[in-house]
Amino acid sequence: MNEERELAISPIVQTSVQHNTQVVSNIRNLTASLFGVAAGTLGLESYPGFIFYLVGTLIVSLLVFAVRAEGKPSEYFHRPLGDLWGGEVFSGLSSFVLTWTLFYGLVRA
Amino acid sequence: MAFLGGTLNTVGAVFLTHAVYSTSEHTATFPHAPLPLDITLELLFSILILSAGIVLSSPTLKPIQWARWAGRIQREGPHGEGKWTREGEEILSEGDPFGFLGLDGGIAGKGEGRRGFWDVRGKRKEYTEWVKEGGSR
Questions:
Q1: pLDDT in tens, B33-84
Q2: Do A23 and B43 touch (CB under 8 A)?
Q3: A96 has a chain B CB within 8 A of its CB
Q4: How far is A69 from chain B (nearest CA, A)?
Q5: What percentage of chain A has pLDDT greater than the value 70?
Q6: Where are the domains of chain B?
Q7: Alpha-carbon Rg of chain A, whole angstroms?
């Protein structure tokens, strides 16, 4: 009820939310396959590879936070924790694993 | 900003290609030796540069609060964003969705616009000043 009233007082623009989600998802997909290339070339296996991915996404989140959101994520994301810091992390994981295994096979095997 | 992003992307891609090729050659020559430090550093450096370039060349975010979004639209107006259609027409950013009501003409006092909101506070202030003066004019 409280949040509903909050939204009635300061409404949210749906097209902007969609646009921002799209931008973050685009960045995540591109960087996820990039980290896969790096992880495969470094020859990481099992858990270190996933930790590498998580550290990489954290760095990318920091970049988005500093460059695109100008340090004020609540102005651009409805829930900054879920939409910016944790947004689309697991949907990028599949493309990460794809390029990780591909480059591991190409370079190492 | 877009130019800087493109430059970073190009530089990063060159470094990444070089690092991956070096790794491939290294493992082909010494299959069981660990990767040299310089290749590792080059690889990490290149992906850092590339991700910075990707973030910098991404489109800007739009404010989600209606007040800020509408304020920005009203201040900047519909302007080109560097995109053109195939016919050569420039694609403009989104404009004021209530522009067709013609409220601006009325408020600025230039045209025959429709008045959107009556300035209650201003009128009240005028009224209190009128009362303070003694109600005579």
A1: 788 888 889 889 999 999 999 888 888 888 888 777 777 777 777 777 777 8
A2: no
A3: no
A4: 7
A5: 98
A6: 2-56, 68-97, 101-132
A7: 17
| Cβ density class B10-28: b for 16+ within 10 Å, e for less | eebeebbeebbebbeebbe
- φ, ψ dihedrals at B116, nearest 5°: -80, -65
Instruction: Report yes or no: A90 and A28 within 8 Å, Cβ to Cβ.
Output: no
DSSP classification of residue B30: S
B7 touches chain A (CB under 8 A): no
Residue of A nearest to B40 (CA): A42
A88 Cβ neighbours under 8 A, 6+ residues apart: A24, A25, A28, A29
pLDDT digits (tens, 9 = 90+) for A65-76: 888 877 777 778
Which chain B residue's Cα is nearest to A75? B63
Residue ranges covered by each domain of chain A: 26-107
Please give the model's pTM, rounded to 2 decimal places.
0.74
Residue B55: burial class (beta carbons within 10 Å; 0-12, 13-18, 19+): buried
Q: Quick one: DSSP state of residue B89?
A: P
Residue type at position B9: N
Question: How many CB atoms are closer than 10 A to CB A81?
Answer: 10
